[in-house]
Design a protein that fits this description.
alpha+beta; four-stranded mixed β-sheet; 3 helices
Length: 138
């Protein structure tokens, strides 16, 4: 149980850390293609790579961390969005991505009969272009 408590604390801490990358000091506001979004991508990429994931950014700007299976298999997708509404909470969207990463880290290098892809979607809130779900449409 202590291990799960530590993982929960680390997950919450990571969300709070990522909330500091914002376009609006004192709040969490992170729009697609902003410097704050690029910083979040960079931090998440490092965590994902250290967890043994192959990390890419697709044509829609989604961050994708792939964790290979033990053989040919299906794929489990986990994640959420990395952009926020204006003045969002620290956990808006990002919690789903960080939780997916934490689950991969819990595996400690073990491989499952299915692959895992943790996705940080772009422009889900529709704040920058007024059209939501651009990243998920890909």
């Amino acid at each position: 149980m202590a291990q799960l408590d530590a993982i929960a604390e680390e997950t919450i801490g990571r969300c709070r850390l990522l909330a500091q990358w914002t376009e609006e000091p004192g709040y969490t506001t992170r729009t697609f293609l902003s410097e704050a979004m690029r910083a979040v991508h960079e931090e998440l990429r490092g965590w994902m790579e250290r967890a043994g994931m192959r990390v890419t950014i697709d044509h829609a700007g989604n961050l994708r961390g792939s964790y290979a299976s033990s053989g040919p298999s299906r794929l489990l997708w986990l994640g959420s969005h990395l952009d926020t509404v204006p003045r969002a909470g620290a956990f808006d969207g990002i919690l789903g991505v960080v939780l997916g990463l934490s689950l991969v880290e819990l595996l400690g290098g073990r491989r499952l009969p299915f692959g895992i892809e943790v996705i940080g979607f772009s422009e889900e809130e529709g704040v920058r272009f007024g059209v939501p779900f651009i990243g998920a449409a890909l």
